Amino acid sequence: MSILIHEKSNVIVQGITGRDGSFHADQMIQYGTNVVGGVTPGKGGQSILGVPIFDSVEEAVVQKKADVSLIFVPSAFASDAIIEAADAGIQLIVCITEGVPVNQMLKVQAYLASKPNVRLIGPNCPGLISPGKCKVGILPGHIFKQGNVGVVSRSGTLTYEIVYSLTSAGFGESTCIGIGGDPIVGTDFIDTLSMFNEDPQTESIVLIGEIGGDAEEKAATYIRQNIKKKVVAFIAGVTAPPEKRMGHAGAIISQGMGTAEGKVKAFHEAGVQVASIPSQVADLLT
Amino acid sequence: MKLLEYQAKEVFRSADIRTPNESMVTTPQDAVKIANESVGYPCVIKAQVPVGGRGKAGGVKVANNADDVLTLASQILGMSIKGCIVDKILVSQAISIHNEYYLSVVLHRASKKPMIIMSPSGGVDIEEISKNRPEMIFKEEYDFILGFKDYTLRRTYQKMFQNQEEKVSYKEFKGFLQKLVNVYFEKDATLVEINPLIVHNKECMALDAKILLDDNGLEFHPEFEKYVTSNAEETLQEKMAREANLTYISLDGNIACMVNGAGLAMATMDTIKHFGGSPANFLDIGGSSNPEKVVNALRIIASNPNVNAILINIFGGITRCDDIAQGFREGLEKVKFDLPISCRIIGTNDEKARTILKEINIPVTTDMDEAVQNVVKMAKGG
Fold first, then answer.
1. CATH architecture of the region A127-285
2. Residues near A116 by beta carbon (within 8 Å), at least 6 away in sequence
3. Beta strands in chain B (DSSP E)
4. How far is B251 from B127, CA to CA, in rounded Å?
């Protein structure tokens, strides 16, 4: 098993006729993902890359039983695209778009709270891949290999970096998920850790975090209390200058959380080993 | 982006949030004119800078007459506060203060809602209060369906104004909070802060104002365009990067980095330090890179005189490696510099990229640690 996506996922691409949408839809098809169509309002009835284009997500769901949607639309339209997918009955929505205003995402989250069967990944994320089965996103497929390591990350390219070194060291991945680097994302570390914990294919977990926010600290607490599998972490930004503070309010809310040192300490306290450079992750997993 | 006090107060006034009678000026003569004609005496002269701690630096002074205004405005204009030269001052009506309150609306990641933070012990020591006397800080979530919950907000209202000589009605208080939340959403802010807030003639009034805008929301707010340049505290390279739509942060090392993706860019800096080098910058050329971005990035990193070696670290996903290599070819023709380059490229279309780079004699590796170790050697003159 893998988590969230597999051979039978019926995937559509919202924004399939754009430069990035069409390029990556093509890459996904070549990888073996079951792309059943695309959505571009006004271009319904045409086709691209051998798959039909629909005017709305709803039509793709009715006609092609789409259950996963990948969003490539420009940032001004991304939150509406997410809502459209959720209303149409899509169960897994993956939003690649970067630059979505954070307060729009707050509203999207509040709306999705009324739809417990819908899971959003992103925005501003690279998507996810279950190697050898299905790829939904922009991750370069050829660096992955089917295996037993679950990977979850807030970053995009840093994830590829670490996966590449894992694969070179002989490891493979069950599923690799980029949850996105924005302050507000649909799926967090804890959601993913819980799924990896239940997944029989996943034997160990790699968590890739970065400075800012308190997602890593919370994940560390969750790992200490719930995760029985081996977890190795990497935190980017140990040498980065301190994050610009959000006035007094930021200090009042964060109470010191968010620094690389704090995150590394939280992981150590949870029994998680932390790599100091990306290539060390594979060593620590051995 | 951070709005200066006078800009944030303009936003407040347009949202019907009360502020003192005041105007921003750039010369001592205009300060006197404003004080005489509209603000009156006593008045407060306040430096307008994008950094905190201006009061302690002498950037806020009370003037009792026109001579004071002329003297103080002349002192404050041109003053340097934490490296920022003061070129704007606010001449503001002085108002008697019974108590300083703190009030803010801030993005709260954990609850995925805006949070309202309040305290009857506002003023310059609010962060100390939050650490040492957390019982003096009150928090309310703003719910998208309910707005404020009256039963909790009423309790907070009682605590905020108990033992105060002058108070506002619950209705006025709640209405004021709502106006602040409206500003938060309408302007795509991530923070709207008033410290201090005071009660004046039974109404809430903002004596100071701070607004942080979400950079992702700026394109929907052309009214702030005019502030982008004037408010930026940035180095020459940071300015060039902003104009070229790249994310660049100046650091004090000598190894320039060009990386795609913020996480990998940070990890690249960490790895440079790990191997004994020192990064000159953080530069994320972003996803979906067209060759023009690479040309601009090269121009920016090569313009930093501290740099003596360049590291390129590209892991292609949405970024196509051949676009990067093409940009490189164009960049080397357009930008003249004589610096050693260590290049690592892998990922989407990397075969094509390697072909292009071979044609222009740039050695490429696929291993990040190797590329970093090479550039550290180059920077040391090896």
1. 3-Layer(aba) Sandwich (3.40)
2. none
3. 2-3, 22-25, 43-47, 60-63, 80-81, 84-85, 89-93, 101-108, 113-119, 138-141, 189-200, 203-206, 210-213, 247-250, 255-259, 281-284, 309-316, 341-347, 364-365
4. 28
Say which CATH topology domain A11-121 has.
Rossmann fold (3.40.50)
Asked if A176 and A141 count as a contact pair (C-beta separation under 8 A), the reply is: no
Q: Which of A9, A5, A49, A52 is nearest to A25 (CA)?
A: A49
**B193 catalytic, yes or no?**
yes
**Active-site residue, from B102, B142, B157, B184:** B102
Nearest to B317 among A98, A160, A251 (CB): A160
Q: DSSP class of residue B219?
A: G
Gyration radius (Cα) of chain A, Å: 19
Question: What is the Cα–Cα distance from B357 to B324, expressed in whole angstroms?
Answer: 10
Distance of alpha carbon A169 from alpha carbon A173, whole angstroms: 12
* Contact of B242 with B235, CB cutoff 8 Å: no
Are B264 and A247 within 8 A, CB to CB?
A: no
Catalytic annotation present for B10 = no
Domain with CATH 3.40.50.261 in chain A: 127-285
The span from the CA of B246 to the CA of B253, in Å, is 20
The ipTM is 0.87
Please tell me which residue, B246 or B19, carries the higher pLDDT value.
B19
pLDDT tens figures, B182-206:
999 999 999 999 999 999 999 999 9
Q: C-alpha angle with apex A111: A107 to A115, nearest 5 degrees?
A: 155
d(Cα B374, Cα A280) in Å, to the nearest integer? 18
**Would you call A249 and B117 a contact, using CB atoms and an 8 Å cutoff?**
yes
* Structural domains of chain B, ranges and CATH numbers in brackets: 21-93 (3.30.1490.20), 101-226 (3.30.470.20), 236-379 (3.40.50.261)
**Do residues A177 and A4 touch, judged by C-beta distance below 8 A?**
yes
Which residues of chain A does B210 touch, with a Cβ-Cβ cutoff of 8 Å?
247
DSSP category for residue B38 = I
pLDDT tens figures, A134-189: 999 999 898 999 999 999 999 888 999 999 999 999 999 999 999 998 889 999 99
Mutate to test the interface with B, among A23, A102, A157 (most CBs of B within 10 A): A157
Instruction: Name the residue with tokens 């001579």.
Output: B67
Q: Are B310 and B348 in contact (CB under 8 A)?
A: no
Helix axes A260-269, A215-226, angle to 10 degrees: 0
Tell me: the pLDDT tens digits for A2-21?
A: 899 988 999 999 999 998 89
Closest-CA residue to B342 (of B311, B379, B380, B382): B311
Mapped onto helix, strand or coil, the DSSP state of residue B86 is coil
* Catalytic site residue from B22, B140, B193, B238: B193
State the DSSP code for A19: H
What secondary structure, in 3-state letters, does B102-129 show?
EEEEEEECCCCEEEEEEECCCCCCHHHH
What is the location of CATH 3.40.50.720 in chain A?
Answer: 11-121
Give the pairing type, strands B22-25 and B89-93: antiparallel
Contact B192/A at CB under 8 A = no
Radius of gyration of chain B from its Cα atoms, rounded to whole angstroms: 26
Q: By the 8 A CB rule, do A213 and A237 touch?
A: no
- What six digits make up the tokens of B196? 């201090």
